[in-house]
Amino acid sequence: MGIGVKQLVDQPGKQVLELHKDVPHKALTSVAIQLRFNHIDLNSYKARMKLPGFRQPNSHRCTCIGSAEQTPEHILMECPELAPLRKTAKELGFGGTIKEVLKNATFLVQAAKIMLQSGRLKQIQHVNPYLYAF
Ligand SMILES: [Zn+2]
């Protein structure tokens, strides 16, 4: 279940600070950090943490058709419900593997925007959508 932090990101260092220095808004920075650490308000994380309402065997799954685990990679690369969002991002150059996205400052901002626009992050749903539009 889920990819661990050590598998997604390298050891923190100056290069990590460089990744975040141009992130234009606090909510985007917050989501970018949550993505890099795979501690983000998605079903896979909530099931892994055994949060209330996420202790059932299939609670880690996404809301889309199929049985995919709702991970950052699924939302950013695979979820069929979010294909239109990804299409917009891809037109701006977004792409690559999840590891490549999380290591690239431009892609990381785009990934955070996809996450915010996906409507999956309940704790950040009141952020002004104009702040994270493509
Ligand atoms: Zn999905």
Topology readout:
Elements: H1 5-8, H2 14-20, H3 26-37, H4 43-48, H5 72-78, H6 83-91, H7 98-103, H8 105-118
Helix pairs in contact: 3-8
Mean pLDDT: 85
Low-pLDDT parts are none
Approximately how much helix is present in the residues? 40-55%
Bound molecules: zinc ion
Primary descriptors:
mainly alpha; 0% strand; 8 helices
What does this structure look like?
The chain is an all-alpha fold and 134 residues long. The protein has one domain. It is built from eight helices and no strands. The chain has helices spanning 5-8, 14-20, 26-37, 43-48, 72-78, 83-91, 98-103, 105-118. It is globular. The mean pLDDT is 85. It binds zinc ion. Residues 62, 64, 68, 74, 79, 81 line the site of zinc ion (ZN).
